[in-house]
Task: structure prediction
Amino acid sequence: MNRFDYPIEIARPDIARWRAGNRGIDYVWTYKSRRPGPHVWINAITHGKEICGAIALDHLLRRGLRPERGTLTMSFANISAFASIDRDNPLGRRFVDQDMNRVWDKLDSDAHSIELDRARALAPLAEEADYLFDLHAMSHPTEPLVIVGRTGQPEKVAQGVELVRRIGAPTLMVTDRGHDAGLRLRDYRGFGDPASHQVALVVECGGWWAAESVTFALEFIRRVLTGFEMADPSRLGLPRLREQTRPFRLVRSTETVTIHDADFRFAQPFRGDEIIAKAGTLVALDGDREVRTPFDDCFLMFPVNKPEPGVTAVRFGHVSEIA
Result:
């Protein structure tokens, strides 16, 4: 059992064979069809221990996936953190030096780290891709969800919602403010520019330790390939699509709680998909500061596992159905 008492159901795949890539960037593979179409970029292991996306891309590369239309890029991002997973350390590491999904506003700086230098290597892909699907996983067995854009950018949120509905899953969508600690890949350059056609989604496939997260990642990729008419999924050994029984819902994040004190603790063991009925309910203590829900029916998102000053503790939001 891991420290959350969840059984670790999946293991790190051996992706060493994919190191060379085919375009001069380690662990990056790009294939172009003769037929015109969009450039779709599917990225895995931005966080090293969230391995469901790596398992899914390894499966597709082994099957020899080639697009029948447009351009397809498949990449493995934080290889160094991914390599930390082994028999003696099954929990692995989210990152080595710094969170790779908080460095994208620092690429022009003089700073160096494993994650920052790797982000610089991957940055050209963000200039090329029309669509980015960044595959992640969560620490608790909550419903799969997708981050569709930043609060305050209605144009990008609308693009994200339209893309999710085109794909058909997941049905739970989130828009948020981002993170005080730094910029995510999904908000970098055109992906975060309201004037750009480029669209990026962060896809949270389920628990990082769960076999179900791999199943969802493969289902999601099947939907992407079908939605963009890029490949015939029947030839790729992808799982059958399950019916989406829940309505499309959009959670609009209204507040991001950043930790200020080393003595931060949650009032309850929140998982991250709770709806707290009453405004003013105690959620956490940040030293002597009380963190309480700001309104009734408050949706909790992504409670942090390892509280540290400067990181996002939790996000609050309103949830509504989309017709």
Q: What stands out?
A: The mean pLDDT is 94. The two ends are 41 Å apart (CA to CA). The chain has five helices and 14 strands.
